[in-house]
Design a protein that fits this description.
4 strands
Length: 174
């Protein structure tokens, strides 16, 4: 069982479902505890972070667009806040430069995520830089393909385009 789960968060519905699943595992006796859940939102908006900071059930915010367009919501759901409270979690935000770097690093490791998919890594990195600690093991959920964000990142990744023949040859030599 993870100690902490960091999840890219838009409205908060996936966060609610994840927490509900862990609660049910505990109720069924599969585990004795639930992991702490952490939401990861763009700092330019972050409605769930705002709701949690102001002890509200949900919030509506405004702000500029984010590279992490899939989760750059202006409203949060009450179920997202309820999930964080139940799992003794908290809401983290991240800066645009951090999510761009996290996306590039994941891509270099062969994990081609959209910016929203790299949100958990970005939020976790910023929190650790502030000295925050998390119960181990920490799981960060990656959510979606980076193919959606190709136009947004010109020149940010090296142009590596092996031919199909080269790829097949390298597989045969292994």
């Amino acid at each position: 069982m993870p100690g902490t789960v960091v999840l890219p968060t838009g409205y908060g519905e996936l966060l609610f479902g994840l927490t509900k699943g862990f609660r049910e595992l505990k109720e069924l006796g599969v585990t004795t505890r639930m992991p702490r859940t952490i939401s990861a939102e763009p700092a330019v908006r972050g409605p769930l972070a705002y709701a949690m900071a102001h002890n509200q059930a949900a919030a509506e915010v405004s702000g500029p667009a984010s590279l992490a367009a899939g989760i750059a919501c202006t409203v949060s759901s009450y179920r997202g806040a309820a999930a964080l409270r139940e799992a003794v979690g908290r809401a983290l935000t991240f800066q645009e430069s951090t999510v761009a770097e996290a996306m590039r690093e994941l891509a270099h490791e062969g994990l081609w995520q959209e910016f929203s998919g790299a949100a958990g890594i970005a939020a976790l990195r910023e929190a650790k830089e502030r000295g925050e600690t998390f119960e181990e093991p920490v799981v960060t959920v990656l959510t979606s393909t980076g193919l959606k964000d190709i136009p947004a990142i010109p020149g940010s990744l090296p142009a590596v385009r092996p031919s199909l023949d080269d790829a097949i040859a390298s597989l045969k030599s292994q």
